[in-house]
C-alpha cells in the first residue's frame, strides 16, 4: 500500500522522506472512517461510540470534530462541488494547521467502503480504550513508586480506583463474551533500590525482635501476612511467631529458634547465634513496624498491578474482553492487600457498655463524733 502523507507533513517532497515509524493499523482505520464521512456525511450516525479525543492522530480528531460541528451538506450539491469539504477544512485548520485539501482527497481515495463506517469507528473505539487503560495503568505504577508523596498509600489507592472505573467503562461499551485471560506473560518483578531493600529488611528484623519481646501484640496483627515480607527467612520467622502465639506457647528468642528448626528454616544456612541476636534486639512498637511492612507490600503490589495491565495493553492481539478480564484479575490482587491495610490502619471500634448503678454497699456508720477512748 503506498504511503499516505500524515496531515501535519508539508506537501513538498513527501515521497523522499523515509518512513521510519510505520503507522499502526488504527491509523488506517481512522483514515477510512474520515474518508467515509467526507464522502457520505450521514454515516456520522454510525460513530456514536467515539469522540475527537478517540483518535490516535490529533489532526484526525480535529477533522472529525469539524465534520460533527458543521451542518450536513445537501447530498446533490455535495456530489457536484467541494463547498462543504472546504468548510470542513477551514474549521479543522483552526486546530491542525498542517491539514491540506490534498490530504482530504487522500482520505476519500483510501476509504474502501463508506458503508463500513461503523466497523472503522469500532476499531478506533477499541484502540482508544486500550490507550486510555494503558495511561491509567502507567500512572498507577508511577504513583506507587513516587517517594515524594506525603501519603503514598491513599494516593496510590485513589489511582487504583480511577483505573478500576476505566475498566468498568470499557466493560460497559464492550459486552462480555466467552473468552480467556490474556496470553501476555506477567512482567518480572521490577528491580528495587538496594538502599530500600536494606531499609525494608531492617524494619522486618525490628518487627520480629519486638514481637518476640511482646508476643501479646501478635494476635492483634492478623492483618500482616508472610507475603508482605521481602526476605524469605523473615517471612518464615514471622510464621513461627504467629504459630507460637496461636498455640499460646511461651515465646522468647530460644523458643522461636526451636520452632524455626522444626520448620526447616535453619536448613537454608541461617546460623542459630545470629538468629538469637536478631530476635533479641527489640525497638519501638511491633504494630508500627508491621504497618511499615504492610505499606511497602501495598505499594509493591500496586506497582506490579500497573505493570501487568500495561503489558496487556502493549500486546495488540489482546481483545477488549481480555483487557477487562485481565485487568480485573490484577486489581483483585491489590484489593486483597488493600483490605488488610484498611483493617490495620482503621481505628478499633469502641463499644459503649451500659453500666447499671449498684446500690451502695453497707459500711460502718459514719459519725462526726470523735472516736471513743478505750480504757485499759
Protein architecture, described:
This protein is an all-alpha fold. The N terminus and C terminus are likely disordered. It has 13 helices and no strands. The protein is rod-shaped and about 95 Å long. The longest helix is centred in the C-terminal third of the chain and has 29 residues. Helices cover 56% and strands 0% of the residues.
Helix/strand-derived category reads mainly alpha
For this structure, the quaternary state is single chain
- How much of the sequence is in beta strands? under 5%
Helical content class = 55-70%
Q: What is the radius of gyration computed over CA atoms, rounded to a whole number of angstroms? A: 34 Å
What topology does this entry show?
Layout: H1 25-39, H2 58-69, H3 75-80, H4 83-93, H5 101-110, H6 117-144, H7 152-173, H8 194-213, H9 232-246, H10 253-262, H11 272-279, H12 286-314, H13 320-345
What characteristics describe this protein?
single chain; about 375 residues; mainly alpha; 13 helices; about 55% helix; disordered N terminus
Q: What is this structure, in a nutshell?
A:
The chain is mostly helical. It is 56% helix and 0% strand. The N and C termini lie far apart (130 Å).
Amino acid at each position: 500500500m503506498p504511503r499516505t502523507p500524515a496531515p501535519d507533513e508539508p506537501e513538498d517532497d513527501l515521497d523522499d522522506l523515509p518512513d521510519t515509524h510505520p503507522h499502526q493499523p488504527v491509523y488506517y482505520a481512522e483514515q477510512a472512517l474520515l474518508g467515509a464521512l467526507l464522502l457520505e456525511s450521514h454515516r456520522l450516525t454510525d460513530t456514536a461510540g467515539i469522540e475527537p479525543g478517540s483518535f490516535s492522530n490529533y489532526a484526525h480528531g480535529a477533522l472529525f470534530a469539524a465534520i460533527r460541528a458543521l451542518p450536513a451538506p445537501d447530498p446533490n450539491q455535495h456530489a457536484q462541488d467541494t463547498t462543504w469539504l472546504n468548510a470542513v477544512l477551514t474549521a479543522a485548520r483552526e486546530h491542525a494547521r498542517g491539514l491540506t485539501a490534498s490530504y482530504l482527497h487522500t482520505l476519500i481515495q483510501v476509504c474502501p467502503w463508506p458503508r463500513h463506517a461503523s466497523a472503522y469507528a469500532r476499531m478506533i473505539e477499541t484502540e482508544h480504550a486500550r490507550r486510555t487503560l494503558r495511561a491509567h495503568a502507567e500512572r498507577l505504577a508511577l504513583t506507587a513508586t513516587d517517594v515524594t508523596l506525603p501519603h503514598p498509600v491513599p494516593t496510590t489507592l485513589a489511582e487504583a480506583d480511577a483505573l478500576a472505573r476505566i475498566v468498568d467503562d470499557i466493560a460497559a461499551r464492550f459486552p462480555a463474551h466467552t473468552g480467556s485471560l490474556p496470553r501476555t506473560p506477567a512482567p518480572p518483578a521490577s528491580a528495587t533500590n538496594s538502599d530500600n531493600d536494606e531499609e525494608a529488611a531492617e524494619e522486618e528484623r525490628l518487627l520480629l525482635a519486638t514481637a518476640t519481646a511482646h508476643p501479646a501484640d501478635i494476635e492483634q496483627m492478623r492483618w500482616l501476612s508472610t507475603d508482605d515480607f521481602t526476605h524469605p527467612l523473615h517471612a518464615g520467622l514471622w510464621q513461627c511467631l504467629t504459630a507460637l502465639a496461636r498455640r499460646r506457647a511461651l515465646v522468647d528468642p530460644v523458643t522461636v529458634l526451636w520452632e524455626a528448626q522444626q520448620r526447616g528454616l535453619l536448613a537454608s544456612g541461617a546460623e542459630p547465634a545470629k538468629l538469637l541476636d536478631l530476635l533479641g534486639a527489640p525497638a519501638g512498637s511491633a504494630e508500627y513496624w508491621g504497618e511499615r511492612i504492610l505499606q511497602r507490600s501495598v505499594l509493591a503490589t500496586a506497582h506490579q498491578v500497573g505493570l501487568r495491565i500495561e503489558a496487556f495493553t502493549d500486546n495488540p492481539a489482546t481483545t477488549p474482553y481480555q483487557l477487562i478480564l485481565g485487568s480485573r484479575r490484577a486489581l483483585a490482587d491489590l484489593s486483597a492487600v488493600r483490605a488488610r491495610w484498611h483493617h490495620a490502619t482503621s481505628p478499633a471500634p469502641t463499644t459503649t457498655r451500659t453500666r447499671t448503678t449498684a446500690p451502695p454497699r453497707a459500711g460502718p456508720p459514719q459519725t462526726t463524733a470523735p472516736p471513743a477512748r478505750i480504757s485499759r
